[in-house]
Design a protein that fits this description.
InterPro entries: Ras-like_GEF, Ras-like_Gua-exchang_fac_N, Ras_G-nucl-exch_fac_CS, Ras_GEF_dom_sf, RASGEF_cat_dom, RASGEF_cat_dom_sf. By secondary structure, the protein is mainly alpha-helical. The protein is 62% helix and 1% strand. The longest helix is centred in the middle third of the chain and has 23 residues.
Length: 474
């Protein structure tokens, strides 16, 4: 059945689920965390950090003339730190440490900046490129400009590089705001009037439709920032007394929620297209068409559209059309259903996803690089990782091992979303997919009962109630 936008249902536990990460058990005695210049060894030359104080983790983020944190650490910490400290405060702490350690408030700075300048520039570049929405906050922009003004005068090249950084950040923020996706759900509470167009009149080639669905999926993926995966969940950790460090949570997960709504729309669109035709043979033709579209989505690596199509075809108003299904060739559908079977925590799908990910890593073309995961399952995995492991250990340290696993999952998604869609856009098909009217659940049942009569008393009673509701409104 289609996923819902409601978080309480979207994140219900799948059967047999076990978190990927075995949560670290707190030790009875903890050694004092290392501070100061020696910290780099624990990030590159020594064992990975499993837990540390927030101050230590912030210290590890700050570059020096002789040290720069690994890129994986920068991503992991910037992703997870927002659970403990707001991004503006984190940037402020980073700036203060830079000023203090490198004596940026003193002169002359030429010798210091020759080594330190490129490293702080690299950190700011990684931050602005990976988490650009952090810099929608005026405080963030002010602090960024402050450190720019401190280091830029030392070298004309820094002026140029930092101006380019600010320009790219501005352009990125404008593009994120301007290029909104139309995900309007056109629904009917009763059966709507006849629709003059159907999907087959717009596109009768399964491969072409799968390509256009992939366009929409990748566009949604591109708009989702990594921070939304962290900001999607309330802080419920009883060991952590701090409140979530982000405000207006709904606004912060807008793109993620829009993607879930797109999945729901595609489910209902598939069901509407099947239930709409008056003749059994036409409905069977539509079923066979969507089976072929689903197969092409699987071959492309578009698992989200594949699952939406299967979910739409498994909705009760569609699945009850036994005479229609009897007319359709469904062998390929059952194979696809097997691939997306939820048994064993979606074992078959996860195997196929690993295969697609391997193909993507070794691919020479964007066509082979496409990996679009079943998004609601990805969200569930991250949700249960969040629920299954505490953010802080009893000694107050941040459970960094948990956030390394979180960053691994989100980082893989970040790689997939950067792929450019290699298929040519068909504006007519895209417009139809975004705007075609769809039946509500009641509308689907009414259309289904009118296509194939109710078979039991429950269906008869429901049909009678739906018809009475329509007559009362007309």
């Amino acid at each position: 059945m289609p996923q819902t936008v409601c978080s309480s249902t979207m994140f219900s536990a799948p059967t047999g689920f076990s978190p990927h990460l075995a949560c670290a058990e707190p030790e009875e005695e903890e050694e004092a965390p290392q501070e100061g210049p020696g910290r780099g060894a624990c990030l590159s030359d020594g064992p990975p950090i499993t837990s540390a104080s927030l101050d230590t983790l912030i210290q590890n983020l700050v570059p020096t003339a002789d040290y720069y944190p690994e890129k994986a650490y920068v991503f992991t910490f910037l992703l997870s730190a927002r659970l403990f400290i707001p991004p503006p405060e984190l940037l402020s702490r980073v700036c203060e440490l830079c000023i203090k350690q490198q004596q940026l408030d003193q002169s002359p700075l030429d010798m210091v900046m020759r080594k330190f300048g490129p490293k702080i520039l690299q950190l700011l570049t990684e931050w602005t490129e990976t988490f650009p929405t952090d810099f929608r906050d005026d405080k963030m922009v002010g602090q960024l400009k402050d450190i720019v003004h401190r280091i830029a005068p030392c070298d004309e090249a820094y002026w140029k590089s930092l101006n380019q950084l600010l320009q790219k950040l501005s352009q990125r923020l404008v593009s994120l705001t301007a290029s909104s996706i139309s995900d309007k759900l056109v629904a009917f509470k009763t059966k709507p009037p006849p629709i003059t167009k159907d999907i087959l009149s717009i596109c009768n080639d399964p491969y072409t439709l799968a390509q256009q669905l992939t366009h929409i999926e990748l566009e949604h993926l591109r708009r989702i920032g990594p921070e939304e995966f962290v900001q999607a969940f309330e802080q419920k950790d009883p060991l952590d007394a701090t409140q979530p460090c982000y405000s207006d949570q709904k606004k912060k997960t807008t793109n993620l929620e829009a993607y879930v709504r797109w999945f729901n729309r595609l489910c209902y669109l598939v069901a509407t297209e099947i239930c709409m035709p008056g003749k059994k043979k036409q409905r069977a033709t539509v079923i066979e068409f969507f089976i072929d579209v689903a197969r092409e989505c699987f071959n492309i690596g578009n698992f989200n559209s594949l699952m939406a199509i299967i979910s739409g075809m498994n909705m009760t108003p569609v699945s009850r059309l036994k005479k229609t299904w009897g007319k359709a060739k469904t062998a390929k559908f059952f194979i696809l259903e097997h691939q997306m079977d939820p048994t064993g925590n979606f074992y078959n799908y996860r195997t196929a996803l690993r295969g697609a990910a391997h193909r993507s890593r070794t691919a020479n073309s964007n066509r082979e690089k496409i990996v679009i995961p079943f998004f609601s399952l990805l969200i569930k995995d991250i949700y249960f990782l969040n629920e299954g492991c505490a953010n802080r250990l009893p000694n107050g340290h941040v459970n960094f091992e948990k956030f390394v696993e979180l960053a691994r999952q989100v980082g893989e998604f970040m790689t997939w979303k950067q792929v450019e869609c290699p298929f040519e856009e068909d504006r007519a098909i895209l417009h139809y997919l975004h705007t075609a009217p769809i039946f509500s659940e009641d509308g689907l049942y009414l259309a289904s009962y009118e296509s194939e009569s109710p078979e039991n008393q429950v269906e008869k009673d429901r049909w009678k109630a739906l018809r009475a509701n329509v007559l009362a409104k007309t």
